[in-house]
Specification:
mainly alpha
């Protein structure tokens, strides 16, 4: 549980910090669009960067970084998509067993494989100094590193979720995630169905 708490703390911190990159990406995107729109009307002597492929790629890198680094935080918060129409028929304990099974046999092998495959993909790019083929494009390895880092964090979070689910099933801890309950719409539908039976 100590390791699980450490992993949760790291992913919680990273998830909250990278959310600010959405604001940066929006500002870069707005600046790039504005400069493209009024670029011809700006005097050439103004010392401001013009719209470029590098700004466009920067906003892709920022969005990609948020997506990859926040994936583990999303798993921690149990905010990934669920099929509530199916899980609503299960008891809480059955949902816990389903989660444990899926984390061990589907999530963990998948993220471990992608972490393993991401390393040489990033390493080749880093060693070669790979640069975008677009004119004035950016170096590519930082974006590839974010893919690798995202899968490392997601693998660690998968292990943490497995530990916590086992602890919940054994009665060692209370449910650490209030979001592990059904979606409110699914709960409302079940309540309506129960009232209809009465």
């Amino acid at each position: 549980m100590g390791l699980s708490r450490l992993i949760d703390g790291i992913n919680r911190f990273i998830g909250k910090q990278v959310s600010w990159l959405i604001l940066v990406a929006v500002l870069v995107s707005a600046y790039n669009a504005t400069v493209r729109f009024v670029g011809d009307g700006l005097p050439a002597y103004l010392p401001i960067p013009r719209a470029s492929n590098s700004l466009l790629e920067l906003q892709w890198y920022l969005y990609g970084t948020v997506f990859m680094l926040a994936a583990a935080y999303t798993l921690l918060r149990n905010e990934h998509i669920r099929i509530d129409i199916v899980s609503s028929f299960f008891s809480k304990r059955t949902r816990d067993w389903v989660d444990l099974f899926c984390h061990i046999f589907f999530l963990l092998p998948f993220v471990t494989l992608l972490t393993w495959l991401s390393w040489p993909w990033f390493h080749r790019s880093f060693v070669s100094g790979e640069i975008s083929a677009n004119a004035s494009g950016l170096i590519i390895w930082p974006a590839k590193f974010m893919v690798l880092a995202g899968f490392v964090l997601l693998t660690a979070q998968a292990l943490s979720e497995i530990v916590k689910r086992i602890a919940v099933l054994r009665g060692l801890i209370d449910e650490p995630n209030p979001q592990h309950a059904l979606h409110p719409a699914a709960e409302a539908a079940i309540e309506m169905e129960d009232k209809g039976r009465d």
